[in-house]
């Protein structure tokens, strides 16, 4: 049973999330290098950790985009079947 007003076929904006992740990778790499050159190793470490998080998100987004393109985009939590409660 649905309790919200969302459409039954709602999908996230994966392309937008992809480009935001690319933008995040660029800035995290820049911040990591810039802070390391400036001798601010704590900030450099923080930017490096942010880079890992953004790269993880980028991998997940690319995986979901490819899965959707192959036509295997289904709700895997229920073995491909949707719950009809």
TrEMBL record:
Top-level taxon: Bacteria
Membrane-spanning segments: 18-37, 43-65
This protein's UniProt keywords: Membrane, Transmembrane, Transmembrane helix
InterPro entries xrefs: DUF6343 (IPR045924)
The protein's name in its UniProt record: Uncharacterized protein
Organism: Streptomyces liangshanensis
Biological classification of the source: Bacteria, Bacillati, Actinomycetota, Actinomycetes, Kitasatosporales
């Amino acid at each position: 049973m649905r309790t919200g007003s969302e459409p039954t076929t709602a999908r996230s904006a994966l392309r937008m999330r992809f480009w935001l992740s690319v933008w995040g990778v660029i800035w995290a790499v820049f911040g990591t290098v810039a802070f390391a050159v400036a001798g601010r190793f704590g900030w450099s470490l923080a930017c490096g950790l942010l880079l890992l998080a953004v790269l993880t998100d980028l991998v997940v987004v690319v995986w979901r985009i490819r899965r959707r393109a192959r036509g295997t985009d289904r709700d895997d939590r229920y073995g491909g079947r949707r719950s009809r409660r």
